[in-house]
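queue> pop job 88
queue> type: inverse folding (structure -> sequence)
queue> payload:
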């Protein structure tokens, strides 16, 4: 794959560093009753927190579905420790890092147990999990990014790593698939960012690149006012157009996944991409309105997703 953006080389280096880093080769043996409870806990977390991912992962074979939901729960716990911003959050994240990367996690941590079993079963490189925790830890600091290149590095940490770990669960053709997974992760996280502008601003975070806001004549005062103006619409059209282009550029990677996982990943990408349509339908008001793809629309999308995944 020819790299199309300047930021891709840095992220590709991070991915290869993780892929070729040290990963435990030991296997872990867990009490089967405890393991079943652990996977059920991950299933519940996924169902509550992400209907889109829960629906998409339902399309995977049983073992891969359980592992994908353990991965989701690992990410959810990591995220929640930072987002809830308790006084001891940094220490709690450090403790979670130790549990989430252990071969034998504590018996009372069901998510860590399911994640350890999934990670070892599918040989997921441990460094990807560490990169994700490093990525969410960035939110402990004031969040501002000057350029899209800087923002893409953040997106790699919190989202591309998830795609790279998912590839190991699903199975993939080889290293040529890695750039596509990186790009899809950036596209997915950028969709999150565009959807949650108002929510993030109220939490003291602004992910949108300062350089691009200034190019469209937008200031912090405009964001604080939360008014949809002509300048804001033009800015959002630019962001959505780039975001859609990233999804398009990532799609050839679907064909490099094992056949039994293509539908699930294509569905996850298309269901999330649908959020961009909803932002447009809301007249770009992502200050006060959360763009959501309805359950009925998700179901209507699946036949087309299935057909495209088969062609891949």
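queue> result:
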């Amino acid at each position: 794959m020819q790299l199309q953006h300047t930021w891709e080389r840095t992220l590709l280096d991070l991915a290869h560093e993780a892929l070729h880093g040290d990963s435990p080769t030991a296997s872990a043996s867990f009490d089967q009753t405890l393991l079943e409870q652990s996977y059920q806990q991950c299933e519940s977390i996924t169902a509550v927190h992400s209907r889109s991912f829960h629906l998409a992962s339902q399309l995977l074979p049983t073992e891969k579905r359980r592992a994908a939901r353990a991965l989701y729960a690992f990410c959810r716990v990591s995220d929640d420790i930072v987002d809830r911003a308790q006084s001891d959050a940094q220490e709690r994240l450090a403790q979670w890092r130790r549990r989430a990367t252990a071969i034998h996690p504590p018996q009372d941590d069901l998510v860590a147990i399911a994640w350890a079993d999934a990670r070892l079963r599918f040989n997921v490189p441990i460094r990807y999990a560490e990169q994700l925790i490093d990525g969410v830890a960035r939110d402990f600091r004031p969040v501002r990014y000057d350029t899209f290149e800087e923002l893409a590095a953040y997106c790699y940490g919190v989202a591309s790593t998830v795609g790279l770990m998912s590839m190991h669960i699903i199975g993939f053709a080889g290293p040529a698939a890695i750039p596509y997974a990186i790009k899809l992760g950036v596209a997915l996280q950028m969709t999150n960012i565009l959807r949650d502008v108002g929510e993030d601003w109220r939490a003291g975070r602004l992910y949108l690149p300062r350089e691009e806001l200034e190019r469209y004549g937008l200031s912090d005062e405009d964001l604080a006012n939360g008014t949809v103006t002509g300048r804001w619409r033009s800015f959002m059209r630019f962001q959505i157009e780039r975001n859609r282009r990233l999804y398009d550029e990532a799609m050839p990677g679907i064909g490099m996944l094992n056949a039994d996982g293509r539908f699930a990943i294509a569905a996850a990408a298309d269901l999330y991409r649908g959020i961009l349509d909803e932002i447009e339908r809301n007249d770009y008001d992502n200050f006060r309105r959360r763009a959501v793809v309805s359950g009925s629309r998700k179901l209507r999308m699946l036949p087309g997703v299935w057909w495209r995944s088969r062609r891949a």
